[in-house]
Structures
1.
Amino acid sequence: MILVFAESKDGKFKKNAFEIALLGSQLAKERNQDCAAVVLGDHHQPSELSGYGISKIYHVNNSALNDFDDFAYRDVIAGLANELGANTVLLSHTALGKALAGRLSVRLEAACISAVKGFENTGGQLRWVKPVFSGKAFAHYEAVAEKSVVSLIPNSLSVTKAEVSPEVEEKDVEFNKSKVELVERNVVTGKVPLPEAERVVSAGRGMKGPENWDIIEELAEALNATTACSRPVADSEWRPHHEHVGQTGIAIRPNLYIAIGISGAIQHLAGVNNSKVIVVINKDSEAPFFKAADYGVCADLFDVVPKLTEAVKRFKADNG
Amino acid sequence: MNILVCVSKTPDTTAKIDFTADNKEYNEKGKQFIMNPYDEWYALVRAIELKEANGGEVTVINAGPASNDPILRKGLAIGADKAVRIDVDSRDSYHNAFQIAAYAKGKNYDLIVAGKETIDFNGSIFGSMLAELMELPFISYSSKLEYKDGTATVHRDVEGGVEIVKVSPPFVLSAAKGLAEQRIPNMRGIMMAKRKPLEVVEAVEAGERTRIQEFELPEDKGAVKMVDPEDMDELVRLLHEEAKVI
């Protein structure tokens, strides 16, 4: 049995919930096992997970689980995994997953393999493929334990639907809470969070100042992308800290990363080098970022970015 | 406050990444090694600041061979009071957390800190494993920590912002950018570090739970395709037809 933990926010599944369900069902098919999902807290529609290959959804419908608490989540997920005899528990490598995976694995006496991008089956031996050395290489991991807790980097799989309609079962599992008290949450709403964004428009010091960000916002809006920035921009407080991508900020792997006015220092590349397609716009033809790019435009960003926005809008108008 | 800071040795940020001929291990030949930046810049420095403000002692700890001693000496030069090395070849995050938990249990640390991840294996699991082994609360990815009247107020980074939590010691914390500012050891610190204790302790029995079978380098991307700045329709066409991302 494979158990996937599907994350929710405000009673709705996060995008990574569908991805982790899909990974679980792919692994289940490979091993000829069943895959169940667990959903925690108040939830509008747990059955929304239907169609991603899950055979059963367990809903622990208790509002005390609405906010993340690592003790409570550990108790419920480990409790359910033990009850079901699950040998693999899958999570997303999100802020929540990073806080929980290690703890859960110790409780389950399981191997813990975090931040994977997928698995491969080599002659019956399952190996998890994980970016290492800040995206500069990959390692193939094997579990040396009967059970495994594995976390998947968001945006690693393209989510497609399959025809399965799982039953939803309401479930009670006992838990204790930690002594950590959440006093305030200060999070932007209404935007796709950076680690889950399929398209990201990112800008650096070449922007000259925070007052010039309109052209970045406009391009991002045209592309339905999330905005990001380089370290000097966040350090100068031109943009909020949570937008900073790179070694010391967050690591992302969108389908499209457009870097505008960012030179491409090795520490910045470490956070974005697993992006599927990289476009670099920079007026300095010697900018190191061009070496890591798929497409480059060597020009003044203030001139070329509005033109790109117009071109995207024309494309969208022509292609509905 | 008595604080334990867990530090790792990693290849330098700019070190070339290549592997032994069988692709089983990182090729250490000719490489520079450093203290994992998140351990050094954020975890250790914030620990020293807390000690300076509240009294107590900062211990840096590493589970590794004698060749890791320079990392611990650097921790002492930056301002830790003593260093401990558990004499073992660390095998994976679990093995490492198990060794450090075995040492720390019963020593009544108020706070145990490590960086949010190491820059070599990027796992982000050590802190929460250690917290579970020690049966302590854990705050991950902390970018701010204030301590007053026995309570810590901590910012933890989450997608799109921060959550602010309150917790009383003892607890385990992983450190992210913002928690402190890097300190460069001065000559006096380096001289004093030589006289500070570096204790070597025996490892406990423990196994690993994961194994790396193989490393691989990413495929070469090929040369960048330059697009005429006057023809952004062409770039959009390439992103749609060739790259298939819009």
2.
Amino acid sequence: MNPIARSKDFLSQTGQISRFAGHLFSLGAKPPYEIKEFLAQCFFIGYRSLPLVGLTGFIMGLVLTMQLRPSLVYYGVQSRLPVMVGVAIVREIGPVITALIFAGKIGSSIGAELGSMKVTEQIDAMEVSGTNPYKYLVATRVVAGTLMLPVLTMLADVISLFGAYIGVNISAVTSFKLFFLQILHTIEFGDVLPAFIKTFFFGFAVSMVGCYKGYNSSRGTRGVGNSANTAVVLSSVLIFVIDLLAVQVTSILGLN
Amino acid sequence: MEHQQAAKIGEERGEAMIVIDSLCKSFGDNHVLKNFSLTLHSQENLVVLGRSGSGKSVLIKCIIGLLQPDSGEIIVFGNNVVQLSHHELDMLRTQVGFLFQSNALYDSMTVRENLEFPMRRHWFEISQREVDDMVMEALDNVNLGHTAEMMPAELSGGMAKRIALARTMILRPKIILYDEPTTGLDPITAREIESLMLKLHDKYKTSSIIISHDMNCVKTTADRVALLLDGRCYTDGSFEELEKSDDEHVKQFFE
């Protein structure tokens, strides 16, 4: 494909995704609401992701602390280790790594599930039975994903800080109270709020891209595989793009 | 011409449930339907016969609003499907059942949940007891009362087709569109599906459009057969009339 055709294709895809996302506000906002399916998706997306997010969060905090310690010892500022790890986890690493794990687990799962429903005509069956498949399948998953990722990120942050505490205590002895008091005294509202807000955008992007790719899956098993794959790749890229924009916005607003 | 004759015959038979007039549908350069016209009358079983890829499934997907035609009119119960809003189309779809060739059962739900799904979406006032009664009646209609708690993956091809038929009937539609109901089934199961279709037709007084190229199915179920050829309704008539036809195109299907 030549560069002009690629650019056209990219712009066309961007337009289609925007229109698809726009339906959430035009169709999804109108009653009747699919409350039961929404709660089922919250359970699946939120509760079922907790073990994976918790484990990766714990390892992330532990490894980050162990990797940072030698450098801080070299400069004689190892006492600042809890503060440094705490700020890094709360502001950046916690939200981004959790969102990437979320994209791998939930983005691919939504893409494959809806893709499979598309190729086996289950979405068409829903439509001909007078049910709006966008409201039932897409709106519920996108809203659940948007609300569950911030909750998962908060939990991942806490578990990650606990991992960091273990990491600190591998080479030195610090009390649990002192460790967390140091972190809480340093972290400000301006550290927590932007990081928390951007996780809503991460959650929206991951679940919306997963739904779009699955809903527009081409025929056949390869189409389903491609939907799951491109959902993860595209949402991972979007997470970094949103993160970059969030940093710029918080900088302009003076929250840095 | 044939369409006008059919409409005349239809006037004698009963009210028109679906009137398709000058329907055109293309996919790129592939002109699938070209000025296709047809009328389905009350309580009539109309089989649309045609070669693979001739646009039979496209036709019924246009009727139910899954595909948007390029031009022409599809009048169902006096409403032009092409001009209906999303909500109006959803309401119309509760009166028109659609049996998919692939059955399209929701594979993450049990048989019971599959059957309950359309009811839960439309009949908000219905009690759990009434839902249970209707599900069991639908399952008994297809002689599969024992499968309520099974998953679709546990069903054989014939059972899945019968469950799909039960789900299609659960909202008591006045019109049913069958997309190749016996394709991929062994002859014995295919005959069972045909007799079920006739039984449900008699019980609920439905009107049907049946897409098929299984001549046994056509012979058993059709009150009238329409031949779809080159995107148009080439001819229509009873199975016996078409079977005796001297037209080369018609003969191909009955030899």
